[in-house]
Amino acid sequence: MNTEGLESAPIHVRSPGRVNLLGEHVDYNQGVVLPIAIDRQVELFAWPLDQPRVEITALDLGETVEFAFTNLEQKLDRGHRPLPAWALYPAGVAWAAQHQTLPLQGFRAAFRSNIPIGSGLSSSAAVEVAFAVLCNALNGWNLPLLEMAHLCQQAENVYVGVHSGLMDQFASACGVQGSVMRFDTRSLEYQALPLPPGTALVIADSGLRRSLANSAYNERREDCERAVAILSQDLSGLQSLRDLSLEDFYRLQNKLPEVTARRARHIVEEMARVDIAVERLKSGDAAGFGALMFAGHASLRDLFQVSLPEIDALVEIAGTLPGCYGARLTGAGFGGCTVNLVQAHRVGGFITALQDRYRAQSGREVQVFACEASAGASILEKL
Ligand code: GLA
């Protein structure tokens, strides 16, 4: 498909990626997370069809896939070939909708994205949410944003097979411009909080991607579930690590296998960090918030063990640069990006220095860019 006809599309959706400031791997333990939707996004253009079929072009890959709603369960295209990996996201959204007996009209669509793929910035959730927003409009579902996020999580968990929490889809669907989102993944309540005054966010993409990241992610989740199963023998009513106090964890940690204890310790301490971080956000305490980011990184590195030496180096270098309040790995880990909280007037110098120092130290290049907190996904109005 050439890109010239895109502007004539009757439906145009924008759906952002996200960066998480603190609360890593706590969303599948019913904890509180602090993501923002970013100004990097999927753009989706669509035309309704009369037939019950879908034709999607991934503009960045130059690939087109066609599937029918009757082939969704088997993950096959109209020629009975397995769907390519990228098509599992839109097909998964249609599959999840079918399971909820939501109506589905056919469509032709094309999308592109400037969210680096597999980098911990939720490129896949942004694709899912884009298609959910499209289908919501096309079929008059009238789903609230959070339910749309849930539908996308179903697609990710069951259809794609990554047992992720709700944070990414939530941030992409519900982000508020200029704001950090405090999202309680147990009560599902959320509120928009300001970034500390005079600060800006900078993302550094290491370019590293670990191929077994999905299975390592699922293993971490199993470790957390194992900790709950073992500790619930002593603590009746323990449903998730959200219910575990720091005191009970320190008292009972010897009952856990060593690796399980490390994983659980990261979770309970990270949840405590988030509570303090929210207070520091509310009082505009950039240095105090940044200190919690550094502490969160150390815990991801040493206890949850999802970092890489190159990512640790990026965090360490950032910590020595003028104007940097905090830095940490963001997202699931196993490569990907760091997020940095930086004095707004020092962003330019910070970006150059981080690139130069990292190159000098590692011989590798790193992509570093400032990002803004953007609004969640929406249909863009025609001018
Ligand atoms: C991935 C998952 C999220 C969350 C993060 C880690 O991005 O999709 O649900 O678990 O990892 O915080």
Structure description:
The chain is an alpha+beta fold and 383 residues long. The protein has a domain at 6-194 and 375-381: Ribosomal Protein S5, domain 2 (2-Layer Sandwich). Helix content is 39%, strand content 23%. The chain is built from 10 helices and 13 strands. It has helices at 88-99, 123-138, 145-160, 167-174, 213-231, 246-252, 258-282, 286-302, 309-320, 347-362; strands at residues 11-20, 32-33, 35-48, 53-58, 63-68, 107-113, 179-184, 190-194, 199-209, 324-329, 335-343, 367-371, 378-379. It has a 6-stranded mixed beta sheet with strand order 5-4-6-3-1-13, covered by helices on one side. Strand 4 and strand 5 (63-68) form a beta hairpin. Helix 1 packs across helix 3 and helix 3 (145-160) runs antiparallel to helix 4. It is globular. The two termini are 23 Å apart. Alpha-D-galactopyranose binds next to helix 4. Alpha-D-galactopyranose (GLA) binds at residues 20, 24-25, 27-28, 164-165, 167-168, 331-332.
